[in-house]
């Protein structure tokens, strides 16, 4: 059986946007390059995540930015899921490339994985799983010391 790539039409099939729905998005850097091991590049992405909340498109519940990928849990408020994720990735790439002095360089791999949470899923458990990523990856011995995450509650 073939693995599904983020660009796979099978993954996009059935993808829809539902305001009020909570989504877990995972997206990776191009070729899984650990760009966000650089503190300043990581903070550029975090600024863009926060900007999405400011515009009213979504309400972030938690996120963790790993060196080569992002996990983002949010409630979609307005608009389209694909447009929101596309806008985040485009703005973050622009800011990252500005800092790197590499205008137009590819930052993100195409596509993303999304999961619309069901009402029977434990939101707190999903958030804890997301935030514990740096710990499971062996990047830190305590999540508290990892600088690129946030949550409204755990």
Task: List the main descriptive attributes of the protein structure presented here.
19% strand, disordered N terminus, Alpha-Beta Plaits, alpha+beta
Kindly describe this structure.
By secondary structure, the chain is α+β, with helices and mostly antiparallel strands. The protein has a single domain, classed as 2-Layer Sandwich (Alpha-Beta Plaits), CATH 3.30.70. 34% of the residues lie in helices and 19% in strands. It is built from five helices and five strands. Helix 2 packs antiparallel against helix 3 (81-100). The longest helix has 20 residues, at 81-100. It starts with 8 loop residues before the first helix and ends with a strand.
Backbone CA Rg: 15 Å
Q: Any guess at the CATH architecture?
A: 2-Layer Sandwich
Whole-number mean pLDDT: 90
Tell me the series of helices and strands, N- to C-terminal.
HEHEEHEHHE
What is the CATH top level name? Alpha Beta
Enumerate the spans where pLDDT stays under 50 for 5 or more consecutive residues. 1-6, 8-12
How far apart the termini lie comes to 37 Å
Bin the helical content. Answer: 25-40%
Largest sheet: 5 strands, antiparallel
Number of strands: 5
Order of strands, main sheet, comes to 4-1-3-2-5
Shape: globular
């Amino acid at each position: 059986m073939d693995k599904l790539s983020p660009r796979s039409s099978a993954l996009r099939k059935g993808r829809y946007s539902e305001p009020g729905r909570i989504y877990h998005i995972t997206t990776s850097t191009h070729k899984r390059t650990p760009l966000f091991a650089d503190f300043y590049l990581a903070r550029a992405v975090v600024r863009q995540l926060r900007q999405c909340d400011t515009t009213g498109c979504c309400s972030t519940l938690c996120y963790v930015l790993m060196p080569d990928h992002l996990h983002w849990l949010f409630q979609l408020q307005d608009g389209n899921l694909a447009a929101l994720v596309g806008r985040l990735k485009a703005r973050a790439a622009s800011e990252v490339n500005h800092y790197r002095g590499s205008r137009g360089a590819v930052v993100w791999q195409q596509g993303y994985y999304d999961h619309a949470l069901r009402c029977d899923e434990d939101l707190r458990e999903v958030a804890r799983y997301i935030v514990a990523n740096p710990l499971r990856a062996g990047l830190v011995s305590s999540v508290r010391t990892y600088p690129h995450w946030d949550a409204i509650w755990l």
